[in-house]
């Protein structure tokens, strides 16, 4: 006995002299435990000395052994913590920088926070079973601790983590939490676990750091790529045996039917047989489905906490209560003789109903009350077992906790006034309704109360909260049931404390807007001009000091609270309008420096929907739509630099945009100025894939994502920001052209072609599900999924009037059928229930026959229809039996929409489009040309299609979203998304009907007006489409017999027999000017193609902008307009007088300009320059970084490397040349169909 006591003395001294300040609490507890053990040893020694060995209490010996085990465990824990900290300090600075800069969740490791393990003597059975599993590598590599809310899963996980850590067998841990943004995001789990492993294992660290240096984007890729690259590959090369813990997986945001993390693990966990995974989570459907996956189910052991013998659980809860009440009584000097009574303990255990959370909440209430615990326990016992709401039936969670919560509030605020109650609701509302947890200091700023006042209110109910003494530490509800209770009027029956969500959100939204309107301003953080965010030193420190928690929360979350308000919102509209008109760019600055620009996209999207459906404020809706276009078009530069909101984004915004009108005066001086190349209206947001050889793209069924595939990369993009979200597994580079990708109906799988197989990806994880071997020709394959997602069908390119149709099983990869289809036109394939159908045409003397076949081992005809239309089939809508037919010609093509059942013609019209497609429901269709930058969208109205929207773009293909609200444009090198609701309408049916006679022309493709004219008349009627109730506002007597008319922006151009006249539409009335006198031999179709480009330049002349150069035959400089009507005839006119100007071969008078053809580019492009610019094409990389390589990176830099101007993607992709004008310090970016001039 003396020997043992001496060893323990030395053991205790080590604990007392620990130099690790973080371990003081643990060392103190360790020392106190040692003192207790020594007392027990003294007693046993005394009994032995007295010769009473046979009378020694064996229970006492057993308890002593358990105490010794716990002491040794604590000692080992302290030693491992010291080793862990030492390993962290020994990491080289360069490696540490790499790891620290990686995306990782904060405080997700078991060592952080105020988590507590199981009380000694409780949960022994489950703890012993998990420990045995962790040591036996012949057992399953995955263990699921399954339990309902409140059953103690996280407490058990914390205890296991501590024991494994003390034993040196814990690799990493991630404690998920829906309260914190990074800890509820699945994409943070694997990077965070990898960084923890790097701190524990130097060999692992070497591999990980090298990987991240070579591929920094790996932490942003798909879950499958993350686990394989960050976890599996490094561990598989090392001789490491360890356990990884993921707690509360159900608290992660995951909308998939099967947990994405579990789906990845099912594929990859067998690759690391010496690594075990302990996962805890409630048995929610997606978690249960994940563990039932075919690959994961045989690899998983399951322990169900709520199925443990109730008597065992109740005994543990009783022990937990007894020891907790004993400590409280000791702290409060309560006489423990007969307190608490056995009856009280029995009743508390009964009310707990197997839930440790009830027992913990009860102890917290008794310990933090301002009255004696003995008195408060009487209050709890006397309270009814439940309120009027019986709570959740499962384990009576609501029934027991509601009564306890209400008692806590009534006790804390029994002497408050009505004004105090309002403050209580305001403060508690900020706790339970906040999107992310707020510290008391931020709550005080947000709700406009004093910090001390807020702390006092929170301390009154701290038994219901996780509240620190530090006012800058986030405050959280003690349990997730508390917010449910306080916001439900049936559960919180006292109106003094009930917080209606709509009222709480309204107050939070109002306070967020108040704070932003009072604090936001231009360059709030005093950032240097032109600086990228990454170049600013100590940016995080500036954000903490200047912005602070409250303002940053307001900037990120105001929209969430606002859009939860469905009524009584009138008072919030004025501060919202003030925010949009005066603080919008300041708001984007804060989000930019905080790396949260994506929140701006989400906020504006939600705001637009709210303004449409709830507030119905037309003017604010137009503003919000314009701002949405601003953020999505300039997302890349806003994300990179807050200062370039002004230097680049504001400078490049369209001339008619609302954001430019309201904020252009804030543009810094001096600053680069784009003197040519800015559009009148918004272009669609455009992005360039990382690989130049772009192949294909596809909408997801939900419309939120876009799949993109190039030769070397396959990615999933955000459909709003066009920002890559994850990278799909691509084993090798693809060399063949692939016409399309195809999402499964549920969006969880994606099919695409490699050189010799169809790849099926899991979109949740990014991993390959299967590969289906098949023969793929140079034209690729069109892929269609069955409606149940079990089968795919492919159709080969249409050649020599034949195509091959095959079907395949997704699960087995087997070919199910093959058939040859003959058709006079390109066939169309679609899913029909669990099978497929296709339509083919047969050309006859009187028209075409449409034959519908069911696809199988042979093609079975199911329907046949005849039509007199001889056009080519371009697209087909199976649900509506509508066919889009096109007749191609050297001039404009003719389109025809017919119902093949009745042969009714729904539309027939000439259009520059030569390709087309239907929306999913055939309520719309679009036509486009690969040769002209023009897309037309047609809408079904009263049984016929009418032109609805138009925009300038030159795609290779287009696709409607599932809701038909957006169009995905893909070209050889760029991808763009057009939000159709944000485009001006091309016509107004009501006003078309008011005109007399046959309508000659109706057009307003790009602006705020609609123009109508009737045959045989010279009057044009102008209607302002921006007013809430559009009505004719101006009438123009042209004096011409109108043959052509174009309206772009606010410029109307009319062509008569002998002249072209233009009007500038202003609030005061139209201002006209003669453009020129066209000759009789000028081709009308060429005029149609020419005028839009001329109008755009003419519009800028009226705005007094100097135009240095344009391309494509429509050139305006000073007062000179040059129009090329065909390859041989070129004319120049004075804009004001219409007087023809004689063009010589290379120059005109100095007051005008010179003109030349540039054949070096392989076409007949025209260049026009003022004489004083003296364009010089030369290499100037030594002074200004404007080479094509630099432009692809997206920036123009000055000689010192300063980022002077961001270059939009559509300018980078033009593939043209760079010119520098020394005299005027101007830069020209010149390509085949795009041109910009920037003056520095």
Automatic annotation (TrEMBL):
Superkingdom in the source lineage: Eukaryota
Keywords (A to Z) from UniProt: Repeat
Pfam family, one: NPHP3_N
Domain NACHT: residue ranges: 141-283
Record-linked PANTHER family: AMELOGENIN, NACHT DOMAIN-CONTAINING PROTEIN
Protein name (record): NACHT domain-containing protein
């Amino acid at each position: 006995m003396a020997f043992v006591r001496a060893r323990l003395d030395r053991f205790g001294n080590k604990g007392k002299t620990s130099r690790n300040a973080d371990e003081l609490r643990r060392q103190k507890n360790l020392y106190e435990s040692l003192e207790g053990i020594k007392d027990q040893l003294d007693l046993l020694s005394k009994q032995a000395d007295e010769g009473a060995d046979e009378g020694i209490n064996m229970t006492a010996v057993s308890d002593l052994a358990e105490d010794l085990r716990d002491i040794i465990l604590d000692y080992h824990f302290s030693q491992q913590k010291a080793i862990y900290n030492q390993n962290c300090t020994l990491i080289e600075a360069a490696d540490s920088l790499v790891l620290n800069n990686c995306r990782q969740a904060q405080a997700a490791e078991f060592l952080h926070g105020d988590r507590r393990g199981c009380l000694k003597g409780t949960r022994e059975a489950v703890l012993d079973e998990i420990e045995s599993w962790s040591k036996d590598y012949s057992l399953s590599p995955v263990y699921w601790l399954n339990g309902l809310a409140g059953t103690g899963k996280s407490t058990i996980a914390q205890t296991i983590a501590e024991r494994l850590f003390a034993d040196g067998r814990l690799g990493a841990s991630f404690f998920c939490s829906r309260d914190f943004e990074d800890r509820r995001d699945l994409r943070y789990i694997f990077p965070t676990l990898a960084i923890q492993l790097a701190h524990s294992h130097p060999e692992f660290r070497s591999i990980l750091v090298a990987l991240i240096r070579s591929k920094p984007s790996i932490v942003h890729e798909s879950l499958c790529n993350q686990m394989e690259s960050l976890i599996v590959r490094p561990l598989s090369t090392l001789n490491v045996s360890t356990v990884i813990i993921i707690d509360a997986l159900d608290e992660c945001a995951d909308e998939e039917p099967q947990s994405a993390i579990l789906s990845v693990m099912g594929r990859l966990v067998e690759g690391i047989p010496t690594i075990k995974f302990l996962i805890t989570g409630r048995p929610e459907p997606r978690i249960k489905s994940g563990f039932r996956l075919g690959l994961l189910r045989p690899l998983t052991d399951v322990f169900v906490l709520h199925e443990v013998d109730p008597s065992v659980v109740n005994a543990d809860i009783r022990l937990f209560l007894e020891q907790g009440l004993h400590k409280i009584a000791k702290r409060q000097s309560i006489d423990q003789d007969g307190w608490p009574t056995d009856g009280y303990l029995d009743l508390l255990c009964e009310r707990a109903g197997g839930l440790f959370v009830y027992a913990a909440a009860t102890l917290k209430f008794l310990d933090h009350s301002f009255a004696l615990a003995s008195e408060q326990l009487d209050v709890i016992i006397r309270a009814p077992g439940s309120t009027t709401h019986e709570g959740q039936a499962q384990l009576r969670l609501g029934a027991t906790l509601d009564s306890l919560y209400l008692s806590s509030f009534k006790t804390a605020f029994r002497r408050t006034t009505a004004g105090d109650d309002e403050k209580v609701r305001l403060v508690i509302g900020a706790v339970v309704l906040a999107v992310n947890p707020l510290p008391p200091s931020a709550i005080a700023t947000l709700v406009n109360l004093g910090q001390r006042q807020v702390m006092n209110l929170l301390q009154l109910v701290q038994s219901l909260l996780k509240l620190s003494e530090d006012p800058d530490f986030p405050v959280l509800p003690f349990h997730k049931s508390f917010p449910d209770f306080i916001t439900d009027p049936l559960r919180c029956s006292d109106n003094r404390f009930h917080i209606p969500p709509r009222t709480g959100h309204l107050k939070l939204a109002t306070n967020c807007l108040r704070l932003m309107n009072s604090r936001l301003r231009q360059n709030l953080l005093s950032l240097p001009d032109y600086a990228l965010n990454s170049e600013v030193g100590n940016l995080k420190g500036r954000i903490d000091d200047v912005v602070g928690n409250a303002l940053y929360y307001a900037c990120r979350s105001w929209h969430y609270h606002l859009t939860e308000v469905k009524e009584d919102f009138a008072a919030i509209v004025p501060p919202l309008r003030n925010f949009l008109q005066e603080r919008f760019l300041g708001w984007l600055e804060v989000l930019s420096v905080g790396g949260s620009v994506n929140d701006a996209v989400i906020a504006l999207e939600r705001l637009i929907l709210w303004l449409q459906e709830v507030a119905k404020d037309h003017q604010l809706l137009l503003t919000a739509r314009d701002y949405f276009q601003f953020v999505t078009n300039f997302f890349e530069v806003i994300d990179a630099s807050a200062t370039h909101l002004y230097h680049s984004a504001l400078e490049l915004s369209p001339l008619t945009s609302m954001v430019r009108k309201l904020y252009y005066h804030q543009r810094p001086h001096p600053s680069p100025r784009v003197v040519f190349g800015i559009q009148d209206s918004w272009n669609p947001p455009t992005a360039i894939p990382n690989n130049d050889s772009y192949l294909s793209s596809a909408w997801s069924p939900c419309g939120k994502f876009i799949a993109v595939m190039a030769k070397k990369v396959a990615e999933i993009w955000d459909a709003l920001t066009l920002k890559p979200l994850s990278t799909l597994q691509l084993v090798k580079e693809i060399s063949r052209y692939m016409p399309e990708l195809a999402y499964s109906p549920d969006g969880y799988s994606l099919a695409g072609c490699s050189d010799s197989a169809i790849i099926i990806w899991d979109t949740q994880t990014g991993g390959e599900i299967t590969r289906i071997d098949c023969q793929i020709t140079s034209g690729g394959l069109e892929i269609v999924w069955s409606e149940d997602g079990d089968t795919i069908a492919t159709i080969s390119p249409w050649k020599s009037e034949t195509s091959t149709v095959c079907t395949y099983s997704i699960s087995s990869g087997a070919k199910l059928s093959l058939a040859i289809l003959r058709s006079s036109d390109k066939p169309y394939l679609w899913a029909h229930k669990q099978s497929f159908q296709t339509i083919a045409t047969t050309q006859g003397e009187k028209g075409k026959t449409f034959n519908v076949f069911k696809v199988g081992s042979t093609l079975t005809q199911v329907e046949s229809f005849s039509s007199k239309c001889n056009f080519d089939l371009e697209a087909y809508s199976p649900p509506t039996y509508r066919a889009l037919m096109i007749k191609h010609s050297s001039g404009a093509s003719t389109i025809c929409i017919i119902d093949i059942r009745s042969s009714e013609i729904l539309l027939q019209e000439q259009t520059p489009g030569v390709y087309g497609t239907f929306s999913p429901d055939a309520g719309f269709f679009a036509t486009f040309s690969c040769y002209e930058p023009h897309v037309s969208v047609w809408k079904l109205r009263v049984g016929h299609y009418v032109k609805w929207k138009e925009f300038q773009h030159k795609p290779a293909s287009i696709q409607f979203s599932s809701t038909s609200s957006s169009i995905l444009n893909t070209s050889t090198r760029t991808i763009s998304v057009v939000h159709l609701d944000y485009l001006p309408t091309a016509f107004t049916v009501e006003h078309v009907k008011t005109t007399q006679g046959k309508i000659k022309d109706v057009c307003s493709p790009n602006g705020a007006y609609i123009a109508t004219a009737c045959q045989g008349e010279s009057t044009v009627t102008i209607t302002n489409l921006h007013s809430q109730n559009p009505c004719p506002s101006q009438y123009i007597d042209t004096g011409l017999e109108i043959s052509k008319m174009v309206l772009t922006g606010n410029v109307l151009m009319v062509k008569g027999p002998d002249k072209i006249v233009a009007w500038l539409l202003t609030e005061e009335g139209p201002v006209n000017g003669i453009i020129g006198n066209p000759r009789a031999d000028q081709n009308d179709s060429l005029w149609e193609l020419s005028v839009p480009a001329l109008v755009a330049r003419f519009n800028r002349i009226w705005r007094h902008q100097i135009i240095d150069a344009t391309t494509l035959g429509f050139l305006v400089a000073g007062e000179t307009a040059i129009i090329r009507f065909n390859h041989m005839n070129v004319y120049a006119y004075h804009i004001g007088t219409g007087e023809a100007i004689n063009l010589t071969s290379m120059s005109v008078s100095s007051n005008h300009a010179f003109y030349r053809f540039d054949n070096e580019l392989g076409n007949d492009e025209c260049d026009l320059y003022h004489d004083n610019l003296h364009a010089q094409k030369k290499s100037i990389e030594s002074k200004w970084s404007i080479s094509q390589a630099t432009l692809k990176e997206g920036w123009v830099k000055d000689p010192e490397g300063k980022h002077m101007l961001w270059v939009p993607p559509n300018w980078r992709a033009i593939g043209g040349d760079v010119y520098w004008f020394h005299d005027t310090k101007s830069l020209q970016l010149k390509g085949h169909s795009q041109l910009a001039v920037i003056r520095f």
